[in-house]
Amino acid sequence: MIDARLLPLQRAALQPLAGFLARRGISADKLSITGFVAGVCAFGALCFGQWLPALLLILLNRLLDGLDGAVARIHGPTDRGAYLDIALDMVFYALIPLGFAIQAPQDHALPAAVLIVSFVGTGSSFLAFSAVAAKLGRKAPEFPTKGIYYAGGLAEGFETIAVFTAMCLFPGHFAVIAYGFAALCGLTTLIRWRQGWVAFSQDGP
């Protein structure tokens, strides 16, 4: 919901570190893969109820996810990098609620499953919109630096990380947080479905 407003601040904050890494030959792809490894380690920590280590690893994943784009803009973005970034992100987002489900299946399995299904809705509607928009040569003016067409919504990257942070800080309230965010993701999916229906219809703009 507020990703477009935060992107300029994020780019300004990460640019010095991105420049440092780029000058030492660190590629964007390496940062993407390292960030994903951190995300997998966060999943492992969640499975064992290690909330603080999991949170730190989640935040490291997000830091590296921001840095890979910043480094890519220095070296020159590639289609492979854009593909790798979004593909790894989708798996990372699903691993976090799965970790909670494994840690306490009786309490967390159902809300985690509902949340993951809602992620499928937001992710598939996002990627389907992007694929058709790319075919038509459309650009997203709100996200000019993204490697693919970026369709915004109520539940975006910032909101997702805020929710993951809340889950790690208040694991006893995981179910309430998961159901609440799943509802927001469901609404985002419905909005994107309508946007796609209108944007890609023969009578649409």
From TrEMBL:
<protein>
    <submittedName>
        <fullName>CDP-alcohol phosphatidyltransferase family protein</fullName>
    </submittedName>
</protein>
<keyword id="KW-0812">Transmembrane</keyword>
<keyword id="KW-1133">Transmembrane helix</keyword>
<feature type="transmembrane region" description="Helical">
    <location>
        <begin position="173"/>
        <end position="191"/>
    </location>
</feature>
<keyword id="KW-0808">Transferase</keyword>
<feature type="transmembrane region" description="Helical">
    <location>
        <begin position="81"/>
        <end position="102"/>
    </location>
</feature>
<comment type="similarity">
    <text>Belongs to the CDP-alcohol phosphatidyltransferase class-I family.</text>
</comment>
<feature type="transmembrane region" description="Helical">
    <location>
        <begin position="148"/>
        <end position="167"/>
    </location>
</feature>
<dbReference type="InterPro" id="IPR048254">
    <property type="entry name" value="CDP_ALCOHOL_P_TRANSF_CS"/>
</dbReference>
<feature type="transmembrane region" description="Helical">
    <location>
        <begin position="108"/>
        <end position="136"/>
    </location>
</feature>
<dbReference type="InterPro" id="IPR000462">
    <property type="entry name" value="CDP-OH_P_trans"/>
</dbReference>
<keyword id="KW-0472">Membrane</keyword>
<feature type="transmembrane region" description="Helical">
    <location>
        <begin position="33"/>
        <end position="60"/>
    </location>
</feature>
<dbReference type="Pfam" id="PF01066">
    <property type="entry name" value="CDP-OH_P_transf"/>
</dbReference>
<dbReference type="InterPro" id="IPR043130">
    <property type="entry name" value="CDP-OH_PTrfase_TM_dom"/>
</dbReference>
